[in-house]
């Protein structure tokens, strides 16, 4: 493993952002994750106004918005039955903002390695 100041374990939304922010402060960082690739399901489906502010500071807000999907509904279920009065149609969601975070982490110079864990490190 490379000589780094900080080892971030988990290449999810928080780990990637932490790695990127540390690199912006001149700290040598490596991000590892035991998964060989990003999972199919999103770990950060919803984007809040504060997240957009952070993305703006990182310079990826426009790409994140363009890659995202505006949610237009929700389904509420109680005891395995849909509650129509509290549900609206929602399109299939595809997580694309993770790619923006991952690209920014890579451009910042932070190394990210998949199929790695702390076991035996």
Please supply descriptive tags for the structure shown above.
121 residues; alpha/beta; FAD/NAD(P)-binding domain; two-stranded antiparallel sheet
How would you sum up this structure in a few lines?
With 121 residues, this protein is an alpha/beta fold. 33% of the residues lie in helices and 12% in strands.
What would you say this structure looks like, in words?
This protein has 121 residues and is α/β, with parallel strands linked by helices. It has a single domain, classed as 3-Layer(bba) Sandwich (FAD/NAD(P)-binding domain). Helix content is 33%, strand content 12%. It is built from 4 helices and 5 strands. The protein has helices at 13-24, 49-58, 61-67, 97-107, and strands spanning 6-9, 29-32, 77-78, 81-82, 111-113. The strands form 2 sheets. Strands 1-2-5 form a 3-stranded parallel beta sheet, covered by helices on one side. The longest helix has 12 residues, at 13-24. It is globular and about 55 Å long. The N and C termini lie close together (8 Å).
Helix/strand layout:
Elements: E1 6-9, H1 13-24, E2 29-32, H2 49-58, H3 61-67, E3 77-78, E4 81-82, H4 97-107, E5 111-113
Parallel strand pairs: 1-2, 2-5
Antiparallel strand pairs: 3-4
């Amino acid at each position: 493993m490379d000589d780094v100041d900080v080892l971030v374990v988990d290449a999810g939304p928080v780990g990637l952002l932490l790695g990127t922010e540390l690199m912006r402060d001149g700290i040598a960082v490596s991000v590892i994750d035991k998964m060989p690739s990003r999972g199919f399901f999103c770990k950060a489906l919803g984007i809040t106004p504060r997240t957009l502010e952070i993305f703006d500071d990182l310079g990826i807000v426009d790409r994140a918005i363009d890659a995202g999907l505006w949610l237009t509904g929700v389904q509420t279920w109680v005891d395995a039955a849909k509650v129509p009065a509290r549900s609206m149609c929602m399109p299939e969601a595809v997580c694309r903002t993770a790619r923006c975070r991952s690209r920014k982490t890579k451009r910042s110079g932070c190394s990210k390695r998949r199929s790695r864990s702390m076991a035996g490190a």
